[in-house]
Each structure stands twice: as C-alpha cells, then as structure tokens.
Amino acid sequence: MKTNYIISTIYCVFVLSFSTISIAATLTVDQSGSSAYLTIQSAINDTVAGDAVKILPGLYEEAVVLDKSIKLSGSGPNFTIISPPSEGDDRNGISIYAPNVVVENITITGAKYGIYLNSTNKSYVIQRCVISGCEDDGIRIANTPSYLLLQNNTIFSNGGDGISINNYANAQIRGNIITKNKKFGIHNYASDDLSYNCFYRNQSGNYSKSEAGDSDIEADPKFINEETSNLILASDSPCINKGVIGLLYNDPDGSRNDMGAYAGQEASSFWPYYSNGPIVTDLNIIPSSIPKGGKISIKATGHVQNNK
C-alpha cells in the first residue's frame, strides 16, 4: 500500500507540473494569404508574452503597436518593410509600450518616428534594422529602460536625430551606421556606451551630450546606392570588418562583424554578398517520411540579391 501511495503521488505531481508548462508560439505574417495573418498588428494582437512574430517579405503599410512582451522579426531589412499610412494620429513605424521586447531584421521608412519606445525598467533589443526617411528621430527612447541594446542598425537620412535618448545612462550602442540625419547622430541626455559605430555627416553634429567611443569611426560608409535606398555596403566601405569583435558576432561568411544592418550570424537568411545563385530561405519536404520507392514533394523558397 505504501508503494502504491508514493507512485500515485509522484504521478499526480508530474501531471500538475506538466500542465503548467507554457510553450511559446511563433505566429507568421504573410501577405500572400498562406498564413492566418495578413497584417503585423493582427498577429501581435493574438500573441501572449514570450511569443514571436515572424514577418515574411513584403511592404506593410501600417503603424505597428507593440504592447506585448514578444520578439518581432522580419525576413531581413531588404525584404520586410514597414511604412505607415501618410495620414493619421499614430504614424510611428513601431511604437513599443510593453516590457522585454526584441525588434530585428526590418526596414522602417516614411514614419514619424521609426521606432518609438515609451516603457520603463525592462529590457529592449533593437538589431539589424534599417531606419530611414522618417519625419523625426530614427529611434526615440522616451523613457528609462533598465537595459537597452541598439546593435547593427543602419539609421540614415531621418528628419530629426538618428537616435534620441531621454535621460538614460549606459545604453549599449554598438555596430551601428548613423549618417546624414537632419539633427544629431545621437542625442542622449545622460551618458551611454558607444562602440564600433560609424557616424557621418549628421547635420547638427554626430554627438550631442555624448562622446565618441574609442572604436567609433567618422567616415563615409559607402552604401551601394543611396538614391535607390540600397544601403548595403559597397566592397570598399570602411565599415566592413569593423563591427563588434567576437566569434558570436561574426558575419555569415566567418569574417569579423560589419557595421550596419547587414551583419552578424543571424543575418545568414538575408546575407546580401553572395555573388552567384539564389539564396534558399525555406525548404519543405512532404511527407517527412516515406517507404522505400515512395515519392516526395520538395518546395523551396528563395531570392536572388540585386546589389546594384
């Protein structure tokens, strides 16, 4: 009887513990209609804390509000573009009001603020994004987070500051290209930690109430074609192999991290420097297992990069 009692108790505890496990979901946004979500906002609205939203290639004409603690990932800044409607009260590309948010692999253009963050005391990561052609600041931090990492972004030709931070010390700002913004490259009302960034021709100056890091450079980043918004680095760019040091940050070809949005190991699905052939981004094999002599269907999705 004692043995049976112990086994029953362990079984009940196991079932109770297992039933409380929450598995994070990834919701996919696809304008082709092959997923449940056609818009970014509709997917965000269906998430819970800890989920992820994956945005497939396309031009998304919406002002995104992030009020959930999630990871928002595009398919690469050369493929996923957010451009809000030209009219309306809320015209920020992405407005963040929730704690513990990651935004990555997206281009934002034509907004008021590219990314507007107004939340306190939590963690935020913005990485591998292109923010250009916005009316005001590229990135506006309006409150005081406990941790902020801005890494490997390209912030170009915005109407205000490239990055504006309200009274927050020790923001980690590294590996970014911040150039040709109408006001300052970076305007911080406290101190910050700058490293491995490129600043160039920001009209009011590259720094306001901030100081250059020892590893920052001031040089023309040499994009392939600014006029066509192709902000991929040309082969003679001084930003190549000048980004964050460390194996964790190396580019998909194994070389040192570049500055700007097209850099780092996680850029492998949109790495723009292959010279030949398509880049396969998705591969489906149906069915997943078959008997000998059976037939399978293979569907591949990819793209060819245009570096002109």
UniProtKB/TrEMBL annotation:
Pathway: Protein modification; protein ubiquitination
Signal peptide: 1-24
Domain of life: Bacteria
Keywords attached to this entry: Repeat, Signal, Ubl conjugation pathway
Residue ranges annotated for the Right handed beta helix domain, each copy included: 90-193
InterPro entries: Beta_helix (IPR039448), Para_beta_helix_rpt-2 (IPR022441), PbH1 (IPR006626), Pectin_lyas_fold (IPR012334), Pectin_lyase_fold/virulence (IPR011050), SCF-Subunits/Alg-Epimerases (IPR051550)
PANTHER family, alphabetized: F-BOX ONLY PROTEIN (PTHR22990), F-BOX ONLY PROTEIN 10 (PTHR22990:SF15)
Protein name: Right handed beta helix domain-containing protein
Organism of provenance: Candidatus Magnetoglobus multicellularis str. Araruama
